[in-house]
Amino acid sequence: MSGSDILQSVQFVTVKGKRFAILSADDWEALIEWLETVEDALVAKEAFAQLKAAGGDRKRAGWVEWSNVSGEIG
How far apart are CA 12 and CA 20, in angstroms? Predict the structure, then answer.
């Protein structure tokens, strides 16, 4: 299900004068996953733009060697 499909599945209720958006927990989780994917794509796009601007030189683009940072992830 795409993000726009999920957004279209939202239902609205009004309680004590306040309007609330209601969606299923499964749709909520799918929406979060979709947003994270969009965010990841934007990060990758920016990283590759920086790499292109650096003429393909990873070091000049600020990229680091995986072997130098792999121990920091955990």
Answer: 6
Q: What pLDDT digit, counting tens, does each position of 12-67 carry?
A: 999 999 999 999 999 899 889 989 999 999 999 999 999 999 999 999 999 998 88
**What is this structure's pTM?**
0.66
User: Distance between CA atoms of 50 and 48, rounded to whole angstroms?
Assistant: 5
- Whole-angstrom Cα distance, residue 60 to residue 52? 10
Q: Where are the domains of the chain?
A: 3-63
Residue 72 DSSP code:
G
3-class SS of residue 57:
coil
The type of residue at 42 is L
Instruction: Check residue 48 and report its DSSP letter.
Output: H
Alpha helices by DSSP H, listed for 1-74, are 3-8, 25-53, 66-69
